[in-house]
Design goal:
Chain A is mainly beta. Helices cover 12% and strands 51% of the residues of chain A. An 8-stranded antiparallel β-barrel of chain A has the order 1-2-3-5-6-7-8-9. The radius of gyration of chain A is 17 Å and the shape is elongated. Chain B is α/β, with parallel strands linked by helices. Chain B has 4 helices and 7 strands; from the N terminus they run αβααββββαββ. The chains are: A mainly beta, B alpha/beta.
Chain lengths: 187, 156
């Protein structure tokens, strides 16, 4: 049912205008970084799906959690099995809108500050988020960059007492997407 | 009196030996934990046996029919896939062999296999339409594509 709602939401989001200017990537990069007194933990995911409708500002991305790569195998195991429970919650999603999309011209090279607002779902918990980022339009492509923090407790991610000092309560998320124009025969 | 003193010293020496032995054992245990558990290497996906071998189209269809059941079966497993390669995509940091089976709101949809660095050169030379057999670690289905990571080429 959740899947159906998500697919219907995506379909609604990306079929709003017939002359929509859609931009997509399937090789987006998302990094998360935890800096605690005991250790620094970084993980990267380079197969992130993302799509933007530059006409309406609708913006969606989907992240498979098992695709995050850690430097240490043990950290990756703990992340998947104990914290994020990726067998139970295999995917994180964002479904939202670029509030000031009218300020962005995809026809003109330039860098634009944007505000993105929407629903971020991680670990089965959905939170309303508003974050700042930038769109850099260059030769018809859009480089999306954003850096923000999330609280693990907001997504019901529990850190066992024994490793409380090893993992920061707030982790930094870096989003780096290179969106390309999507010429689709399917609308 | 002197004998009591000697016995006391012996007892003390025995205790010191025990404490020293425990200390050394503790240090060895800590080193072993650090080397073999905390710093254990990632699995070598190239060398691991595939838990399942199947056609890329069959695996993709299984996920589109029932993502949850297929996810419980295949996610986190090493899978060997056969099929006709549709294309090879490259970015600055990864190379992806793609089997396309559908077109949807995110463009081509199918199975996307991120290659291990040592197979990138070989993958770059693969022609669309060529029959390949790849092996990789299945991380799941994102509603449009099935993703395999750390892929190697088994057979061309």
């Amino acid at each position: 049912m959740k899947k159906l709602i998500f697919i219907l939401s995506c379909l609604a989001v990306f079929s709003l205008s017939s002359n929509a200017q859609k931009f997509i990537t399937k090789t987006g990069h998302i990094k998360f970084y935890s800096d605690s007194p005991a250790e620094k933990i970084e993980a990267n995911n380079r197969q992130v799906n993302a799509a933007l409708d530059a006409a309406t500002g609708d913006f969606v991305f989907k992240v498979l959690l098992k695709s995050f790569e850690f430097e240490k195998a043990l950290m990756q195991e703990h992340f998947n099995e104990n914290y994020i429970e990726s067998d139970k919650f295999p995917i994180a999603t964002f479904l939202g809108k670029v509030n000031n999309i009218k300020d962005v011209s995809v026809a003109k090279d330039g860098k634009y500050d944007v505000v993105v607002e929407g629903k971020l779902t991680i670990h089965g918990v959905t939170q309303q988020v508003t974050e700042k980022g930038s769109f850099e339009v260059k030769q018809g492509k859009i480089a999306v960059n954003a850096k923000f923090n999330i609280l693990l407790s907001d997504y019901n991610v529990k850190i066992p007492g024994a490793v409380t000092n090893n993992i920061s309560k707030s982790v930094e998320i870096t989003v780096d997407l290179n969106l390309e124009k999507f010429a689709s025969s399917v609308n | 009196m002197a004998e009591t003193e000697i016995n006391k010293n012996r007892t003390m020496a025995t205790w010191l030996k025990i404490v020293f032995s425990l200390f050394i054992t503790g240090i060895i245990a800590a080193v072993l934990v650090y080397v073999f558990i905390y710093n254990k290497p990632h699995p070598d996906y190239e060398k691991l046996d595939a838990a399942y071998t199947l056609a890329a189209a069959d695996l993709y269809n299984a996920f589109t029919l029932n993502k949850t059941v297929s996810g419980n079966t295949y996610n986190g497993k090493v899978i060997a896939l056969t099929g006709k390669l549709s294309k090879v995509e490259a970015t600055d940091s990864i190379m992806v062999c793609v089997f396309v089976f559908n077109k949807g709101m995110f463009g081509d949809e199918g199975v996307r296999c991120t290659m291990l660095p040592k197979y990138r050169e070989q993958a770059r030379k693969l022609q669309p339409g060529s029959d390949v057999k790849l092996k990789g670690y299945c991380t799941g289905f994102n509603d449009t594509d099935l993703i395999l990571e750390k892929c190697s080429i088994i057979k061309l």
